[in-house]
Amino acid sequence: MIALFKMFGRQVEKTPLQVAEQESMRVLFIGNSYTYFNDLPWLTQQLAESAKETRTLESEMVVVGGATLKNHWKRGEALKVLKAKNWDYVVLQEQSTLPITNPQEMYKYASLFDAQIKRVNSQTVFYLTWARENQPETQQILTDSYTNIAKQLNAKVAPVGIVWQKVQEANPKLNLYSSDGSHPNPIGSYVAACVFYTTFYGNSPVGLIRRIYTTNSSNPQASNRIELENLSETDAKIIQNIVESIVRK
After folding, report:
1. What is the widest separation between alpha-carbon atoms in the chain?
2. Would you say residue 129 has pLDDT above 90?
3. What are phi and psi of 242, to 5 degrees?
4. Which of 72, 77, 121, 76 is nearest to 92 (CA)?
5. Do 34 and 65 touch, CB atoms closer than 8 A?
6. Which residue from 179, 178, 147, 171 is spatially nearest to 161, judged by alpha carbons?
7. CB-based contact 57:27 (threshold 8 Å)
8. Per-residue DSSP letters for 11-65?
9. Residue 209: pLDDT above 60?
10. CA angle 142-106-119, nearest 5°?
11. What is the mean pLDDT of the segment spanning 207-219?
12. 3-class DSSP state for residue 116?
């Protein structure tokens, strides 16, 4: 099937592939283990599928354990992927403590990436991360670092760390950390996925799926998925309502 679009008084044919791309939301994640733990992009896709969004979510990630934005810039792989396809959003995730210890370096490379993102007509989204479990007082520094650079660059912020903090205040028994006190456990990644879903689509996450799976395969559509967590309805509502309150309002 070929779709026809009018442009400057004439009809322009688009191939089925081009039409499909137009109907999909495409997101590139650039980051490290806070992104690839529990496959955050895939979890976000599952939420979009649960919501029956008319624009399906397609995502890719360029991730290296412990990487900073400077590391990604120097390696060059993220820039190659950025330029190779059309992206609606490009998510930038800085190394977990660098916004606290060296915000100026973060700002430098965030700005370099943002300039390239704008050149390909995409939009930057900053992945505002959470404080270490034993350093909750650093959350405000993380929040300030991400929101300040986002304002300077007119970029979006996915306020994951802020939501983490509010969820923990609402239910202190709901653990979001893995055993190292830094990385997210499946529930922590679910919280992040809810934030990204709402940031990308602008829609409420309330009522979406509350079962968390891993693909257990290089094929995300594989039937041998393993359930990581099945949130109670109460806990799911706490997370989803806080996400809606902070991200949408």
Report:
1. 63
2. yes
3. -70, -40
4. 72
5. no
6. 147
7. yes
8. EEEE-HHHHHHHHEEEEEEEESHHHHTTTHHHHHHHHHHHTT-SSEEEEEEEE-T
9. yes
10. 120
11. 73
12. helix
Q: Helix (H, G, I), strand (E, B), or coil: what is residue 164?
A: helix
H/E segment holding residue 4: strand 3-7
> Mean pLDDT, to the nearest integer, of 196-214?
92
CA atoms in the 13 A half-sphere facing the CB of 109? 24
**pLDDT one-digit tens code per residue, 12-26:** 344 444 444 458 999
- Which DSSP category does 184 fall into? B
Dihedrals phi, psi of 50, to nearest 5 degrees: -60, -35
Q: Which residues pair with 57 in a beta bridge?
A: 25
Distance of alpha carbon 240 from alpha carbon 167, whole angstroms: 10
pLDDT tens per residue, range 56-68: 999 999 999 999 9
User: How many angstroms from the chain centroid is the CA of residue 37?
Assistant: 12
Counted residue by residue, the chain has a size of: 249
Nearest 10 degrees: Cα torsion 182, 186, 191, 197: 120
* Amino acid, res. 6: K
Question: Cα separation of 190 and 27, whole Å?
Answer: 17
On whether the CB atoms of residues 26 and 37 are closer than 8 A, the answer is no
Could you tell me the two tokens for 62?
């360029």
What's the rounded Cα separation, in Å, for the pair 127 and 131?
A: 13
Q: Strand 10-14 and strand 3-7: pairing?
A: antiparallel
Helix axes 186-201, 233-243, angle to 10 degrees: 40
For residue 29, the Cα-to-chain-centroid distance in whole angstroms is 7
Go through the domains of the chain in sequence order and give each one's CATH number. 22-248 (3.40.50.1110)
